[in-house]
Task: inverse folding
């Protein structure tokens, strides 16, 4: 028997304050619409079920909470029947998708400097996750980690992230760049053909992190056609945009803590440096 409407607002125990406040730019995720279309699924009803609209993806300034992104991926996977939906979306993402952080990275002098720019200003694009670069024993890892809690479809976002990071590295280094391995913190699917086709590298499932392992020499590679003057101008804009953020918000502190942990230096001084604050503050 059908029940009448409840007068009590339903609770969402899976969506914590972090997932409800952390946000991601939607313009960069327009590939979601293309992938839905590839499977013959109308985008409108899927977006509506996630409290989103087509217009949200056309506005470069529009963002959504991680809670809505979580719902969107859950619905998209169900409607398409594709367990690697996020991977397909990730293949549509590149440096330009990351707005001011991506433009800054594109004009950095070296790949290592570009990745530093991307990690430092990535919060302007995505306040629910962190990009990090670490170097150990002649090898580098470029990783993405979600710090927004209460996120159920992390597998989809991590698939998206590794495909996007691979596109970024090939943009910076050239198409001949091949990572030593792609790190995927998900269990190995029965059929990995889609991953082989999209990533074209050694796949390491059940990894602790999501990202790329590569020779450290790639970080010293100069970026072709980088514009030093444009880099300075964009950095001024990025710094001004960062100044508009409240560094004391718990999501920003959580983001920096995760990045510092992944880099192996989670001291008070390092966290304060990344936030642009005095250690006492």
Result:
């Amino acid at each position: 028997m059908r029940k009448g409407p409840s007068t009590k607002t339903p609770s969402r125990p899976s969506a914590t304050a972090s997932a409800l406040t952390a946000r991601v730019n939607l313009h960069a995720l327009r590939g979601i619409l293309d992938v839905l279309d590839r499977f013959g699924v109308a985008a409108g009803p899927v977006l509506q079920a996630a409290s989103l609209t087509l217009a949200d993806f056309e506005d470069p300034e529009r963002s959504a909470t991680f809670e809505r992104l979580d719902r969107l991926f859950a619905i998209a996977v169900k409607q398409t029947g594709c367990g690697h939906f996020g991977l397909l979306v990730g293949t549509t993402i590149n440096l330009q998708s990351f707005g001011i952080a991506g433009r800054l990275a594109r004009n950095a002098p070296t790949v290592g400097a570009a990745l530093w720019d991307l990690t430092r200003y990535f919060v302007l694009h995505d306040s629910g996750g962190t990009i990090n670069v670490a170097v150990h024993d002649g090898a580098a890892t470029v990783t993405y980690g979600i710090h927004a809690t209460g996120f159920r479809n992390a597998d989809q976002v991590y698939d998206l992230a590794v495909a996007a990071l691979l596109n970024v590295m090939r943009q910076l280094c050239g198409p001949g760049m091949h990572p030593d391995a792609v790190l995927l913190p998900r269990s190995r699917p029965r059929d990995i053909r889609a991953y082989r086709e999209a990533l074209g590298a050694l796949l390491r499932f059940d990894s602790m992190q999501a990202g790329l392992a590569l020779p450290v020499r790639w970080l010293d590679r100069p970026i072709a056609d980088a514009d030093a003057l444009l880099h300075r101008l964009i950095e001024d804009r990025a710094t001004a945009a960062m100044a508009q953020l409240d560094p004391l918000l718990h999501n920003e502190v959580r983001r920096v803590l995760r990045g510092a942990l992944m880099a192996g230096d989670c001291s008070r001084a390092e966290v304060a440096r990344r936030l642009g604050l005095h250690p006492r503050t």
